[in-house]
């Protein structure tokens, strides 16, 4: 991979502005003519944004570089439709092997106490047996109390 290009385009945010200018210039070239070219350009932008969200940036950038050069050759021949069509040969070779890691946090994880001496919430609700399964002190959580009865005893 061309490392200087990777340094210049460290993220999608660095690639999109010049790409949008490029597409704006091409679109202005079509002024007054009926064409779907701008739609094809926007489909490509949507495609590259989706790839950048799900795959490692270095792989997406390599795909973009090769895809872009192939489309330039197509445009030289008067073909613009290919901007709207994903290149699966390139995707399979360059992008799909580099999916970003997904960090899934289980919903039923037990939260650690916010402080080591925090009173047992279940005890204060009258629902925890001794000894405490969460190793929290069985003391009243009412402000200034701290006695060994649950909060529910306060009226």
Write the layout of secondary structure elements.
Elements: H1 3-8, H2 12-29, H3 37-54, H4 57-76, H5 88-95, H6 121-124
Helix pairs in contact: 2-3, 4-5
Task: Explain this structure.
The chain crosses the membrane at residues 12-30. Keywords: Membrane, Transmembrane, Transmembrane helix. This is Integrase/recombinase xerD. The chain has 155 residues and is mainly α. The chain has two domains: 3-98, no CATH class; 113-155, no CATH class. Helices cover 48% and strands 0% of the residues. The protein contains six helices and no strands. The protein has helices at 3-8, 12-29, 37-54, 57-76, 88-95, 121-124. Helix 2 packs antiparallel against helix 3 and helix 4 (57-76) runs antiparallel to helix 5. It starts with a helix and ends in a 31-residue tail after the last helix.
Q: In terms of per-residue confidence, which ranges show pLDDT below 50 for 5 or more consecutive residues?
A: none
* Mass-distribution shape: rod-shaped
Q: How large a portion of the residues is in β-strands, by DSSP E?
A: under 5%
Helix percent band: 40-55%
Question: Count of helices?
Answer: 6
String of helices and strands: HHHHHH
Give the distance, in angstroms, between the N- and C-terminal Cα atoms. Answer: 71 Å
Number of domains: 2
Mean pLDDT: 85
Gyration radius, in Å: 29 Å
Could you give a short account of the major beta sheet? none
User: How many E-type strands?
Assistant: 0
Q: What class, by secondary structure content?
A: mainly alpha
């Amino acid at each position: 991979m061309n490392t200087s290009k990777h340094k210049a385009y460290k993220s999608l945010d660095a690639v999109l502005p010049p790409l949008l200018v490029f597409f704006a210039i091409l679109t202005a070239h079509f002024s007054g003519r009926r064409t779907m070219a701008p739609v094809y350009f926007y489909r490509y932008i949507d495609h590259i944004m989706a790839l950048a969200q799900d795959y490692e940036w270095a792989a997406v950038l390599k795909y973009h570089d090769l895809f872009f050069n192939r489309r330039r050759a197509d445009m030289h021949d008067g073909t613009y439709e290919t901007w709207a069509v994903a290149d699966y040969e390139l995707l399979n070779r360059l992008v799909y092997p580099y999916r970003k890691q997904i960090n899934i946090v289980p919903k039923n994880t037990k939260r650690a106490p916010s402080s080591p001496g925090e009173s047992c919430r279940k005890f204060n609700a009258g629902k925890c047996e001794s000894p405490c399964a969460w190793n929290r002190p069985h003391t009243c959580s009412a402000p200034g109390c701290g006695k060994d009865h649950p909060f529910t005893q306060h009226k």
